[in-house]
Q: What sequence folds into this?
């Protein structure tokens, strides 16, 4: 791959970070999501799973925080979320928007859900907005991007997240009475849309990356062999913010410096050479 130089001389990926492959880029653009199987080691899975089962509600602490900037996803996020001019050795070119965990025992029903069971998007994809998926100049701009870490096995048709593949590029309303509604509720096509949604099978330690402009939904967990134990991390451009994180400064300041940069403020000018690169109590999105 040819080296690209910018005015601020951004640093290349660290040795353990992986570039997004042309195949991954093709299918992410085509489908709106990709599956990365068996990313974590068995020891990582067991340690992180134990933290979630013990009550961890996010991935900002413990070993779960290593998922925030795991080398396997950094290269992908650099390609589809980051501003290349702000990829340095001491900061990331994207931000973390939020994180949460889920544990769903066999028999968990969508009726227990909290608003995510109806297929939905961050904003209707046919509308222009800052979070919309787009491609320009040969580069993907995915707006809000979600990385789901599955810490238990997921089997097709038994409760994983489902996606209406390709809907991140939709230009027409999906049939509901309100064109501004970010879900398919009351659409006369709702059953057909649900029938067309896809899911996945994966071993523990796999990651699913998808744009939040893709119609997606929670489903009943019917896998009798294990619960669903997953971590959901969300990322955004350094120029935009969707969630108010409300993350305690004391949690962030205990992180490695580069990881802290995931929570810096959403501005560019100032901050010394290279612009806004370092997190501080006075420079935070939380």
A:
């Amino acid at each position: 791959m040819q080296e690209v130089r910018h005015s601020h001389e951004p640093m290349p990926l660290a040795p353990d970070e992986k570039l997004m492959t042309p195949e991954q880029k093709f299918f992410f653009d085509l489908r709106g999501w990709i599956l990365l199987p068996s990313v974590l080691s068995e020891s990582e899975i067991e340690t992180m799973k134990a933290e979630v089962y013990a009550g961890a509600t996010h991935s900002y602490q413990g070993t779960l925080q290593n998922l925030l900037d795991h080398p396997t996803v950094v290269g992908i996020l650099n390609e589809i979320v980051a501003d290349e001019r702000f990829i340095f050795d001491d900061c990331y070119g994207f931000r973390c928007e939020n994180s949460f965990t889920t544990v769903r025992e066999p028999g968990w029903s969508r009726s227990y859900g909290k608003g995510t069971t109806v297929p939905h998007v961050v904003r209707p994809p046919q509308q222009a907005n800052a979070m919309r998926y787009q491609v320009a100049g040969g580069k993907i701009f995915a707006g809000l991007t979600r990385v789901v870490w599955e810490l238990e096995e997921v089997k097709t048709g038994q409760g994983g997240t489902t996606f209406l593949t390709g809907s991140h590029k939709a230009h027409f309303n999906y049939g509901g009475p309100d064109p501004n509604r970010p879900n398919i509720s009351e659409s006369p096509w709702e059953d057909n849309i649900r029938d067309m949604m896809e899911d996945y099978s994966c071993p523990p330690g796999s990651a699913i990356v998808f744009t939040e402009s893709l119609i997606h939904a929670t489903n009943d967990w019917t896998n009798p062999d294990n619960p669903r134990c997953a971590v959901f991390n969300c990322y955004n451009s350094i120029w935009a913010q969707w969630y108010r994180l409300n993350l305690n400064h004391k949690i962030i300041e205990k992180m490695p410096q580069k990881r802290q940069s995931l929570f810096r403020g959403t501005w560019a000018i100032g901050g010394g050479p290279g612009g806004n690169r370092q997190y501080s109590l006075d420079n935070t999105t939380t």
